[in-house]
């Protein structure tokens, strides 16, 4: 088990404990859906379905903004 810090849309931090072979998606979907969201791992945008998390990572969930 590993511990990852999740910062949500409301800017509130929470700690998620998850198996050591989890992806970003597994952590984020513990509290949020991924529809129209950008996810940053340690400050860098990542593809949530393939990027693995490691102990101590910090994930930030942001809303995707559309521009015309």
The major β-sheet equals:
5 strands, mixed
What is the strand tally? Answer: 5
- CATH class bucket: Alpha Beta
Q: Supply the helix-strand structural class.
A: mainly beta
The whole-number mean of residue pLDDT values reads: 91
CATH architectural name: Roll
Radius of gyration, whole Å? 11 Å
Question: Strand-residue fraction?
Answer: 35-45%
Overall number of domains: 1
CATH topology: Ubiquitin-like (UB roll)
Distance between the termini: 43 Å
Low-confidence residue ranges: none
Shape: globular
Task: Name the helicity range.
Answer: under 10%
Trace the largest sheet across and list its strands. Answer: 2-1-5-3-4
What this model shows, in words?
- This protein has 68 residues and is mostly beta strands.
- The chain has a single domain, classed as Roll (Ubiquitin-like (UB roll)), CATH 3.10.20.30.
- The protein is 7% helix and 37% strand.
- It has one helix and five strands; from the N terminus they run ββαβββ.
- The model has no long low-confidence stretch (mean pLDDT 91).
Please give the structural blueprint.
Blueprint lengths: L1 E6 L5 E6 L5 H5 L8 E5 L2 E2 L12 E6 L5
Parallel strand pairs: 1-5
Antiparallel strand pairs: 1-2, 3-4, 3-5
Using brief descriptors, characterize the structure shown:
mainly beta
Compact overview of the structure:
With 68 residues, the protein is mainly beta. It has one helix at residues 24-28; strands at residues 2-7, 13-18, 37-41, 44-45, 58-63.
């Amino acid at each position: 088990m590993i511990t990852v810090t999740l910062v949500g849309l409301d800017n509130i931090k929470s700690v998620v404990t998850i198996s050591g072979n989890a992806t970003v998606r597994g952590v984020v979907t513990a509290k949020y859906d991924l529809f129209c969201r950008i996810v940053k791992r340690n400050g860098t945008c990542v593809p949530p379905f393939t990027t693995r998390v490691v102990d101590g990572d910090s994930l930030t969930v942001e809303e995707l903004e559309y521009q015309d």
